[in-house]
Amino acid sequence: QNVTVKGVVKDNAGPMPFVTIMLKGTNKAVQTESNGNFTISAPGNAILVFSYQGYLTKEEPVNNRSTINVTLTQDVQSLEQVVVVGYGTQQKRDITGAITSVKGDEVAKMPAVNPIASLQGKVAGLTVVNSGGAGANPVVRIRGIASTNFADPLYVVDGLIQDNIAFLNPADIESIDLLRDASSSAIYGLRGANGVIAITTKRAAKGQTRVNFTSNIGLQKVIDKVDVTNADEFKKLFSTQLTNINASPFDFSNYNANTDWQDQILQTGVINSNSLSFSNTGERTSTLINFGYNKQEGVVKYEDYQKYVLRLNEEIRVNDNLKVGGNITGFYSKYNPTSGSLTNALWAAPIVPIRENESTYYAMPSFQRAQVGNPMASIERNNRTSINKSLRFNGSAFVELKFLKDFTARSTVYADFGFSNSRSFSRPPFSFINIGENGGATTTVIDNQFRSTVSQSQSESHRYQQDHTVTYDKSLDGGHRFSAMIGFTSLRFAGSNLSGSRTDSTLVVPNDPDLWYLGIVNVNNVLGNSGGGGEETNAGLFSRVSYSYKDKYLFNGTIRRDGSSRFAPQNRWGTFGSVGLGWVASEEGFFKDNIKAIDYLKIRASWGRLGNANGAPANLYQQGLSTGSQAVFGEFVYTAIDNAYRPDPNLRYEVVQGIDVGFEMKALKNRLSADVTFYNKTTDGNITSFPLPATQGGYTYYTNLGKLTNKGIELSLGYSDNIGQVNYNLSGNFSYNKNKVVSLGQNTEFQITGNGGVNLTNSGQSIGYFYGYRQIGIYQTAKEMLNMAQFPNSQLGDIAYEDINGDGVISPLDRTYLGTPFAPYQYGMSLSLDYKGFDLLVEGQGVAGNKIYTQRRTSNFATLNYEANRLRAWTGPGTSNVEPILDNTRGNNFLFSSHYLESGSYFRLRTVQLGYSFTSDLLKKINARNLRLFISGQNIKTWSRVTGYTPEAQIGSITGGGADNGVYPVPAIYSFGLNVTF
Amino acid sequence: CQKFLDTQRQGAYTSDNYPYPQGGTPYDTFLFAAYDALRAYNYVSDGFMVVTSIRSDDADKGSTPTDGGADVIGMDNFPALTNGRVNSLWSEYYAMISRCNRIIDQVQNNTEIIATDAMKLQAEAEARFLRGYSYFFLVRAFGRVPKIDRPLETNNNTPQSSVAEIYAFIESDLQFAAANLPLSWDKKFIGRSTKGAANGILAKVYLYQKKWSQAMATANLVMTSGQYDLSVNYSDIFGEKGENSKESVFEIQGTASAQVQTANGIQYASIQGTRGNTTEWNRGWGWNMPSAQLEAAYEPNDPRRERTILYCSSAGNDRFTVYGQKAPFFPTEVPNPKYNHKVLANPAYIAMYNTRGSWWMNVRILRYADVVLMYAEAANELGGTANTTLALDALNSIRERARRGAPSGTLPDVVFTSQEQLRDAIRHERRIELAMEHERFFDIVRWEIDAEVMQAAGKTAYNPNRDRLLPIPQQQRDLSKGLLDQNPFYN
Predict the structure, then answer these.
(1) CA distance to partner chain A, nearest, from residue B458 (Å)
(2) CA separation for the pair A572, A574 (Å, rounded)
(3) Which of A843, A929, B209, B487 would disulfide-bridge A910, Cβ 3.0–4.6 Å?
(4) Could you read off the pLDDT of A194-209 as tens digits, one per residue?
(5) Contact check, Cβ <8 Å, A242/B4
């Protein structure tokens, strides 16, 4: 007996079109309409199966009902989920490599201007080091460091190859796919060796007209300042220091201030993001328009950054076989840099007042005047004296044609244009008050020789890319699915820049941006000008084959022949590829019969080989000349040429090979999910620039050198369930990466030093490890010193170093491994809950096992303000076994040693977010589909022993990383936001 | 596709497409890079000045007590540490040597450059002069250093050569240079390497090796070249107006304009400029302060004292600069009572260039008086009546110039004829005449009076077995994988 069943299918955003409703056990199926309604005729005892890609499939027995309303929930771990695999997509179930997808929503709801910043701690194997600077790009690493020269991943935005994604609106991202292993990224040939981050922007949802608006506004504040001495403490320490070096006391009598320079230069900044989108899908077209505005004020006065993004996506289905479409993004940003210097604020003596009035500031005391300026004078003088704008337009157009039933041809052309221009002028310096010392008068000085300088600079870049692919997809009876794709791609990137400045010899240019053009100053007063350019090209031929049998046995293979203009013609081309195998054990009969607790188990193994050309500047195989130096004879100046670097005519790409073994599992009725991956990646012929001994001329030399490995484990776990009406999801990820330099150089033992010899890269250790002396204490008494190894000029109160080689004296031979700047352990965890309309998200993230070098404490070119640790300096036997005597003339205490290393381990409460989604009753009144309000706190608490502003190790420099020289603070952000859809 | 991938460097030359200038010598652009290296920060300013002057008994670090930190204080009071400054000094001298080697390589091996034999000889001579001069500094500062005589392959890790080998190498360079360099240059190239400069430095190289007769003969070549004399008054030798005068044998050239205040200049004078807290006297770091020992060494009324030491004014005691300006008050305007007067910039140039940085001031590397005193010293060491007379005449010619305009009886002629007495007189004259001009430290070392002089100057930590030489920079030792030996007693 059939009944006619009607109903509505919804998700938490409203009615869903195109949901498939199938009678279980039959081929009979219908789809929902655009308002989510469906009608189906079914036997009274039948079971309806509701399915939609990316959602958990739901089964509903009819039980003779005539109305069945269903709400589907999204499945973040869905096997049906589509994953970007490079020049195409694949279903997650068919993947044999290590690819992780992150939903755009997870990025959109975070208060960040750069979308990648929000991925910190979310994905195993992904390292994100954020900066608190306004609009700053984070440092991103995937699976450690595969090259000593270049470690940034490749970004691919809707197919377009990019270096970063700062130009995207975070709320306009549909998904981010991270291709971590060599087999997944091999299709990118010479560019993918450091991993690939593929971004898919939003498309119009099917069958609906929607308006979505999201906004959040927050305040950023530095909550962990560096502990430095106040005026009284400073006076005490400086007096002690002068006594220690037998100098006469300093006359502090006119220095009565107690200034906290950090408080002066820091500010509470506003962060604000807004996104408005309109989308519509008609019978043959779909359109999405998105407008985004982001603003971020830095926490150092008066930095701020604004960006505007406009994107249009359009698709036209000409007929069943032909589809055309395109995407256009426009981007505009405006940046006001700060001239505030954090080290300046840490160094400036606290005994000096700030200012007398708005144009008269106090100078630092004589003992630091020549080296340290008044931190606020510089900030105020240079505030809003430069205008920096960037424009970016990029777009793509594609044609997709299905033919001969199983074939699809797709051609896409891309263009990307960038322009930036900046203008600035120098404002007259303030007057400075020199406080009288040693009985001298307090004087006010003004630089009456000041001359204004006006500068302008412009640059443009353009990038053209084309991708052409033909794909053949075939499913055969008996469970065979087969897909093959061949393609061709080329990329050309070029740019040029121009800049100049002029100094007026008589006039002071007013503080009026309308005047800041070179033309305002007489043409005879050119200070300088310059221009340059660059060009590079890339071409590749590639193919991918996928095969699966009964969804049980999976195979993926890729091959790419790739060439880069960076290298000499004979070294230009390489052939790369990958093989991936998968076995879905849970599809096997014996498994289904015997192991009930595990719902899904996939074992995958893959191998990939690819090249890395990213690190080497273009055309290094030719001997470049620099013309930037000059000989002077009398008043005559002559241009000189010098070799710009030392060329290696055989320079070629480095080769990265990796193997991966992974397990994916779902268990306990899909509530528990786990993903474990082991990898081993080797870089051979690593492109390296390394310092040659000065006797070889001091030129930079790039060459292929040695071999390094990265081995690691990545683990992700998730558990979702509900307790009554409370749904919860717990997830965590952990990764461990061990980096090792197997060898550097075949015949000669090359090594790379970084940061003035503090970091060393050589065989047997990790890249750029810390290399120095190890502190064992402080020399306490003359008697004790007799029995201790020491330098010839060691004195009481100096740091005692360990005699590593046991020769009875301390010498450079006693330097040793002191740790690594790169955290081997990383982890992240999150808990999300929802109850009725409320939702709560708590995320934490941390690293362990690395060291941070407090290089800011080693400056001793003048007397600088002391950090609080110096209050515990040695003053006599037994007073300290850690902090040496206050005496900046004792060089041994400034040698690089474990004294200046801190544990870089930290755990940070990354996000706490509480939201509320309004019920449909209220939404109906305002005609909305969805409305969510939330409050959020980010970085509100960090547990670490680091004394700097942030424990995030500065690893942007690969072979000289981990130093804290007054790193820009990562602030806490307190924000409020809303998301509404009509 | 191959064509698509053939891109070129944009807006930058390669050695293949560089349009080597026609007309002049085609090696000039390479040579100019070597002359550019002369002005490098440590080559002639910071490291150079600290090593040659602050280390000696004639100067102290100056500035405020803690300024410069361990690096410079270690240089002043010993022992010097193997620090960044020593490394930069080493690196910049070798950068110069590398540029010189490239020129010589171009001359000898680049057949695509069309040049006459005369052009080739002259270009090679200039390069070898600059290379020889650089090695002469290195061997005095560091002792045993690697001898690099050609552009090196990257895997060529070169060990140190003996001091004798380095000296032999320097001699052959300077002899070649002296034989092939011109006597003088057109005004457009004033300050370029000359025969006189090569012979002058060569004479000093002989002097340091106690090759007295060669030193005397070579100095004499300079003195009889007709290019130089003692006509310039002592007071006029220094400062901007005295640049490239008859006194100048080798002088590193700097210039400036109101727009380009530093890029074509030298930081040498700026580092030693007054560290004042008024606009007028805020001219630099205030390093290299004339010492009490130097001050006490002058004979009565010697006008050279006031021209060498800038005395600051104090209450009731106004002092004046050579330009007639009232000197800054100590201690209220400047933290030190004395500064190096020889590097004080003329206010007229400060006004013209709109900066007090003084980067335009040339550095006198070899003055004619130095050559005359070398001649005197070598002649006296050779001994014999004729030589003694020649030595006395040379010495007294310097004193004659020094006392010009002074009350009679000042700086009387030296009349000693015993070799010892005359030796002391010449050494004294050398110290005074060339005070604060980067000779003193190396002089006391070669005279082997360093231990007593340093003790007398209160530099009690000075150990001649160690401190005559600087430590080999640890960074370079690391880069050489330990091939470079450390100097004695530095561990």
Answers:
(1) 14
(2) 7
(3) A843
(4) 999 999 999 887 667 8
(5) no
Helix (H, G, I), strand (E, B) or coil at B106: helix
Report the topology of domain B28-243+440-479.
1.25.40
Residue of A nearest to B350 (CA): A449
pLDDT in tens, A386-405: 999 999 999 999 999 999 98
Interatomic CA distance for residues A321 and A249, integer angstroms: 89
Q: Does the A2-71 domain belong in CATH 1.20.1050.10?
A: no
For B445-458, give one letter per residue: b (16+ CB within 10 A) or e: bbeeebbebbeebe
Contact residues on chain B for A626, CB-CB shorter than 8 A? 12
Across the interface, do B74 and A889 touch by the CB < 8 Å criterion? yes
Residues of B in contact with A445 (CB under 8 A): 277-279, 282
| Helix (H) and strand (E) counts in chain A | 9, 55
Asked if ipTM goes beyond 0.90, one says: yes
Give the tokens for residue A883. 């902090």
Using alpha carbons, select from A897, A913, A919, A910 the residue that is nearest to residue A950: A910
Nearest alpha carbon to residue A822 among A892, A911, A759, A872: A759
Q: pLDDT for B463-472, tens place per residue?
A: 999 999 999 9
How far A683 CA lies from chain B's nearest CA (Å)?
A: 22
Instruction: Determine the distance in angstroms separating the CA of A327 from the nearest CA of chain B, rounded to an integer.
Output: 26
Residues of chain A with CATH 2.60.40.1120: 2-71
pLDDT at site A748: 55
Could you list the mean pLDDT of each consecutive 10-residue stretch along chain A, which spans 982 residues?
85 76 83 83 88 78 86 66 86 88 87 88 91 88 89 93 90 93 92 93 81 93 94 96 90 94 95 93 89 94 94 93 95 92 94 94 89 92 93 95 93 96 92 87 82 93 96 90 95 95 86 92 86 93 94 94 93 94 91 87 95 86 86 92 85 94 91 94 87 77 88 94 88 95 71 84 90 96 93 91 94 92 95 89 95 92 92 95 91 92 96 88 79 93 94 89 91 93 84
Å from B394 to nearest chain A CA? 30
**Are residues A535 and B260, on separate chains, in Cβ contact within 8 Å?**
no
Residue that has been written with the tokens 């500094």 in this structure: B137
Cα–Cα distance between A112 and A879 in angstroms, integer? 47
Residues of B in contact with A862 (CB under 8 A): 64, 66-69
Please provide residue A423's backbone torsions phi and psi, each rounded to the nearest 5 degrees: -135, 145
The C-alpha angle A774, A776, A778, rounded to 5 degrees, equals 120
- CATH superfamily, with its number, for domain A82-213: TonB-dependent receptor, plug domain (2.170.130.10)
B455 lies within 8 A of chain A by CB: no
Interface test with B, best of A468, A530, A572, A633 (most B CBs within 10 A): A633
**A415: phi then psi, degrees, rounded to nearest 5:** -140, 145
Q: How far does B190 lie from chain A, in Å, by closest CA?
A: 5
pLDDT at A347: 95
Report CB contact under 8 Å: B332, A437. Answer: yes
B491 near A CB under 8 A: yes
**Residue B375 at interface with chain A, using a CB cutoff of 8 Å:** no
Closest CB to A812: pick one of B192, B477, B480. Answer: B477
Which residue from B70, B187, B264 is facing A860, i.e. has the nearest CB? B70
Enumerate the domain spans of chain B: 28-243+440-479, 268-289+300-361
Instruction: DSSP for A890-934, please give it.
Output: -GGGGSSBGGGEEE--EEEEEEEEEEEE--HHHHHHTT-SEEEEE
Is residue B303 within 8 angstroms of chain A, CB to CB? no
Query: Which residue, chain included where needed, has tokens 């109906």?
Result: A924
At residue B305, what are phi and psi to the nearest 5 degrees?
-65, -50
Quick one: tokens of A223? Answer: 């909550």
Instruction: Report CB contact under 8 Å: B259, A889.
Output: no
